[in-house]
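$ run holo --ligand "2-(4-methyl-thiazol-5-yl)-ethanol" --emit tokens
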Amino acid sequence: MTGFAVSTAGDLLTRVRERGPLVHCITNDVVVNFTANVLLALGAAPAMVDIPEESGVFAGVAGGLLINLGTPHAERRAAMEAAAPAAVEAGTPWVLDPVAIGALPVRTALAHRLRDLGPSVVRGNASEILALAGTGSGGRGVDATEGVDAATGAAVEIATKTGGVVAVSGAVDLITDGRRTVRIANGDALLTRVTGGGCALGAVMAAFAAVESDHFTATCAAVLVYTVAAEQAASFAGGPGSFAVAFLDALSAVTADDLARAARLS
Ligand SMILES: Nc1ncnc2c1ncn2[C@@H]1O[C@H](COP(=O)(O)OP(=O)(O)OP(=O)(O)O)[C@@H](O)[C@H]1O
Ligand SMILES: Cc1ncsc1CCO
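-- output --
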């Protein structure tokens, strides 16, 4: 008993494909194109609206919002600070990805301000989640220096304080809302050999949260779909380049039966 039924992931995948939720992304310069392609492959509709004069209005009409701190230029920071309260006000589910916080002061302060607005989901690697809880000094740039287990306490603490969900990525992904905790052991290390493997997952979480109000269930489904598709892609890939292409194909083709067969949950 894990607090999450695999069959639900198949149902939510169908819902995403049928409804094509509009996902508002304020993300980093490195992963914009990959993130948009991942959302399109899944069946969602990406829109990269990242200027302050537009982001508040758009956060109110989108189905879900992603705020990713990877390359937080001043104008983009202002766009984030306009979008997050607008999402809260409108009831738009939003995902915070605190990329590379800890040692870098500007994004760390911004991440703490955004955390205090109550994101529906926080997604990061173990070093980022420890830094967001105030108990770690960050990783090595955008990469984690800690395993997921080291961040379990920090994840539960953030989830309890924000009232949202926290997802810690790594060889095993951990998802918690402070009461329920699920570990998903699917995925492939090739996801760490193409840029945006974690960043695009945040956008996929926003797509699932757009179609399911239980954001814990939505986040578990997002991780399972994403990591099972990655395993399928890896079985065809000759390396990171062909993996990235095969991953888009797998996201568009993965089925509920595939999820049921492949899921490794605890
Ligand atoms: N060693 C591994 N084996 C299998 N899957 C992995 C491994 N490491 C990470 N993943 C998968 O890769 C995805 C991204 O996780 P990762 O921890 O690399 O994110 P990140 O460090 O935040 O990435 P980004 O470079 O986008 O900031 C997750 O779905 C996770 O399941
Ligand atoms: C490489 C890199 N640098 C800032 S954001 C980013 C994308 C992966 O997090």
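-- notes --
The chain has a mean pLDDT of 96.
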